Structures are given as structure tokens and as C-alpha cells.
Amino acid sequence: RVFISGLRPSRLRRSADPASCTPQFEDSLKMRLLMPLLALVGFTAGQVELNCVQVPGNLKQIDAGNGQVFGVNTNKNIYTIHGGVWTMLPGALIHVSVGAAGVWGVNSYNQIYKMVGGDWVLTTGALKQIDAGGVQFAVGCNSANNIYSLRSEE
């Protein structure tokens, strides 16, 4: 199996088997121009394979990184999973992200929180969405869709 980061299928269609999902690339001009370039580096669409297994629970947003998974539901409850068991964490967020920069989240008032020692610590700034994938920083967007970078030690 080959997984290429940065190349995402334009949409996923459910197959008859609910335990599998195969990416279906749109037949667009963009994809028709991109595929010959990818073929030069030895990649074909047939090499992308996703083995999907449904996990119990319902979340509206989920993120995984550094061997951890966090998510939030429609009631703004925050969850993490350990050993196949979802655990509700204290607090209320609309978006949570886990990555090299730690665990970060934002609430419905666009307040930014970072998990420190198992507690949510309010930081400065206001974002509607945040991503903790950077090694030394988290990035996010505010309500005006401007992009910001936060140092992970904030």
C-alpha cells in the first residue's frame, strides 16, 4: 500500500462493503493534468488504498496525531480514545487538534486553549479553527479567515 500525504481524493464514495472506502478521483482537468506528473514518479491512482473500519461513537470533528485521537460532538463535549474506549474530557470546544505542537482547541467564543498537564489552559488570541500539526507551532484561522501561527510554548 502506498499512502501519499498531500494528495487527497476529491471525494470518497461508500462502497457496498461498509468496512471499506476507496477514494474516487474526480475526472477533472486538474486531475487529468496531475496524473501524468504522478506517473513520472511511479504513482498511479490504483496505488491509493484505504481500509476503513467504523469505530463506535458520534463526533462532528476529529483529529489524530502523535498516536492520539481527540474529537468533539455536537454538544461541544471533548473526547479522546484509549484502548478502544472513548473518554469525555472536561471543557467545551467546537474544534480540537492534536499533533507535534500538543493538543489545542477552540470554543464557540473563538477562545484558544492548550492542554497542559491534562488541563485546558486559556491562551491569548481568538481563532475559529486550529491545527497542532507543526513541530514548534500551531496554526489557525480567525473569524475573518485570516491565518495565524502560535508558538507551541504559548
Description:
This protein is mainly beta. The chain is built from one helix and 13 strands. It has one helix at residues 29-40, and strands spanning 11-14, 21-24, 61-65, 68-72, 78-82, 85-89, 95-99, 102-106, 111-116, 119-126, 129-131, 137-141, 147-151.
Summarize the helices and strands and which ones pair or pack.
Blueprint: E1 11-14, E2 21-24, H1 29-40, E3 61-65, E4 68-72, E5 78-82, E6 85-89, E7 95-99, E8 102-106, E9 111-116, E10 119-126, E11 129-131, E12 137-141, E13 147-151
Characteristics of this structure?
mainly beta; disordered N terminus; 1 helix; four-stranded antiparallel sheet; 154 residues; 8% helix
Question: In brief, what are we looking at here?
Answer:
With 154 residues, the protein is mainly β. The chain has one helix spanning 29-40, and strands spanning 11-14, 21-24, 61-65, 68-72, 78-82, 85-89, 95-99, 102-106, 111-116, 119-126, 129-131, 137-141, 147-151.
Helix content: under 10%
Number of DSSP E strands: 13
Low-confidence stretches: 1-16
How would you classify the helix and strand content by structural class?
A: mainly beta
- Report the radius of gyration as a whole number of Å: 18 Å
